[in-house]
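Customer escalation, tier 2.

The customer says the design service returned an amino acid string that "doesn't look like it belongs to this structure." They asked us to rerun it and document both sides in this ticket. The original structure tokens are below, unchanged.
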């Protein structure tokens, strides 16, 4: 072990791109808290940083176990799994990777909207399975010109709105606060937004403040022509209520990239043909994941060089 290098705990299986950035510069302890608690106890007094992904859990208990901890560098824009209050309480800074993934997540949101509306996965299967010669596929529905309601109007929400405008869609949103500088209609809550939307697209942070925000009532308001798209966090949707609404035709369909208990997707959801499912790939392109890995490492490097952090989370600014 090179004692001159800072010691870092990886709390989940890190992206190989992030790990490759870290490897030469730090001594990396891979998931000791899960794999070898005794080894963690031995290394704990020397661990100065945690490397995490957007889905990682960093509990108050783990933070308390690491008395030398200075920084938690998340490779992801979302950091709802990190107990930020506990970190701040112990003088630990938290960083994330905003902006660099806006395009990819917004692209995927539009892709899921189109896939659900035009039934692209089913159309692909139709051709592969040799069903075309037997007759045309059932007609799908038009997306251009429809109404999109966006839950969360941060950087990615705005990128989705811009794309929706290019499809001639009318854009409305809900968020904690109205953003008066934006030309979109604001609704104070998800239910009233859903009632005026054909596509309800979720891109709000996860965590306690948005848990099960999209419940049976909101889905009923979206209605039998409505399509739900989730590129935020599975926790934002009451998944049992969603499955029920899809099975009973309360809403028309869904495009889902995130789930309550990833990577486990309920069998009942997987059985529904009007649902398009992707395995949490919002930011999963080579270009974007490299940019995220570089930013996550850049924060860590800046910290150990005594320089200002590049992208601290808002609570740590
Ligand atoms: C990734 C994400 O799944 O940025 C986020 O919040 O959910 C994703 O981009 C992941 O964090 C990549 O490490």
């Amino acid at each position: 072990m090179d004692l001159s290098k800072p010691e870092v705990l990886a709390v989940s299986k890190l992206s190989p791109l992030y790990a490759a950035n870290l490897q030469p510069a730090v001594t990396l302890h891979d998931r000791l808290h899960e794999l070898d608690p005794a080894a963690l106890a031995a290394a704990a007094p020397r661990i100065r940083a945690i490397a995490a992904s957007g889905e990682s859990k960093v509990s108050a208990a783990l933070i308390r176990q690491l008395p030398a901890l200075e920084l938690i560098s998340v490779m992801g824009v979302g950091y709802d799994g990190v107990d930020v209050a506990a970190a701040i309480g112990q003088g630990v800074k938290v960083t994330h990777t905003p902006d660099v993934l806006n395009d990819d997540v917004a692209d995927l949101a539009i892709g899921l909207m189109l896939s659900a509306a035009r039934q692209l996965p089913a159309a692909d299967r139709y051709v592969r399975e040799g069903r075309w010669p037997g007759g045309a596929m059932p007609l799908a529905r038009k997306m251009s010109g429809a109404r999109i309601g966006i839950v969360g109007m941060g950087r990615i929400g705005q990128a989705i709105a811009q794309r929706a405008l290019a499809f001639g869609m009318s854009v409305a949103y809900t968020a904690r606060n109205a953003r008066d500088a934006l030309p979109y209609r604001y609704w104070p809550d998800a239910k009233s937004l859903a009632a005026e939307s054909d596509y309800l697209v979720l891109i709000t942070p996860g965590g306690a403040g948005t848990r099960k925000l999209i419940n049976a009532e909101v889905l009923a308001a979206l209605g039998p022509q409505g399509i739900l798209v989730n590129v935020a966090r599975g926790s934002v949707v009451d998944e049992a209520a969603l499955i029920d609404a899809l099975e009973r035709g309360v809403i028309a369909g869904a495009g889902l990239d995130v789930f309550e208990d990833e990577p486990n997707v309920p069998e009942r959801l997987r059985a529904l043909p009007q649902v398009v499912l992707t395995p949490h790939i919002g930011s999963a392109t080579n270009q974007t994941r490299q940019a995220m890995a570089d930013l996550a490492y850049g924060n860590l490097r800046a910290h150990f060089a005594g320089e200002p952090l590049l992208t601290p989370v808002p609570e740590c600014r």
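Tier 2 assessment: The sequence is consistent with the input. The chain has a mean pLDDT of 97. The first strand starts at residue 7 and ends at 10. Sent an explanation to the customer and offered a walkthrough call.
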